[in-house]
């Protein structure tokens, strides 16, 4: 049974939670001949035989039912990672890290910065990704101590931009990519931005250090605000006027890959 058929099936099916979800997940996994099995303990789902956990049933089914290798292949294709040559010591900044899946796409000798504002999801990121740089704040166009953040963790849709079906509003601390790169004080190989509609504001917070970034890969999908609009054009406009070249994109997924013209 194909990945697309299963995902479409799950999209419309009411997903149970807790131990019921573990049984459901493991049963479907057996049917599709996947080697992934999970267990439920104290509000978290743990993937057996891996040091990995997640907190939300529906997104967990989407991300992991077909295995971690499938998840890695998906992310490599989505963000055009096979177009980039990485080497030891490269710095990767993951804006909207969620459970840390993006980190799986790289060897452990890279320097990874994972940024995730949702408290519960961040706890999974911290559990999953060891010996790296993890930050429980939001990225924005400026630094603020109390800014509204609209939680929708079930499918990883939480955002600073108000959305329709959020489950809870909390206050978070924000900082900018310029703030972060000021502290790193080195060139950045790749920044991945998946900010659930706030991509233009995250880019606004990257001005003086933009010249230090070699690649930017962005999910600019239809996720901004109540109207769920794409940020594709805004992101493209900002980066092309700042010496970046669009080297790959996917209209269907609304993803883009840019390279700084300064880097050969």
Sequence-ordered SSE layout with sheet pairings:
Elements lengths: L2 H10 L6 H13 L6 E4 L2 E4 L4 E3 L2 H8 L3 H11 L12 E5 L15 E5 L3 H10 L4 E3 L2 E2 L4 E8 L16 E8 L1 H8 L3 E6 L5 H6 L8 E7 L12 H9 L3 E7 L4 E6 L4
Parallel strand pairs: 4-5, 4-10, 5-6, 7-9, 10-11
Antiparallel strand pairs: 1-2, 2-3, 8-9, 11-13, 12-13
> Which of globular, elongated, flat, extended, rod-shaped describes the shape?
globular
Q: Distance between termini?
A: 43 Å
How many domains make up the 3D coordinates? 2
What portion of residues belong to β-strands?
Answer: 25-35%
In CATH terms, the superfamily of the largest domain is Vaccinia Virus protein VP39
Q: What summary fits the major beta sheet?
A: 7 strands, mixed
Overall radius of gyration? 18 Å
CATH topology of the largest domain: Rossmann fold
- CATH architecture assignment name of the largest domain: 3-Layer(aba) Sandwich
Helix content, binned percent? 25-40%
Q: Would you count the extended β strands for me?
A: 13
Average pLDDT for all residues:
93
How would you spell out the order of helices and strands? HHEEEHHEEHEEEEHEHEHEE
The order of strands across the largest sheet is: 6-5-4-10-11-13-12
Structural class estimated from helices and strands: alpha/beta
Q: Count of DSSP helices?
A: 8
| CATH class division of the largest domain | Alpha Beta
Low-confidence stretches: none
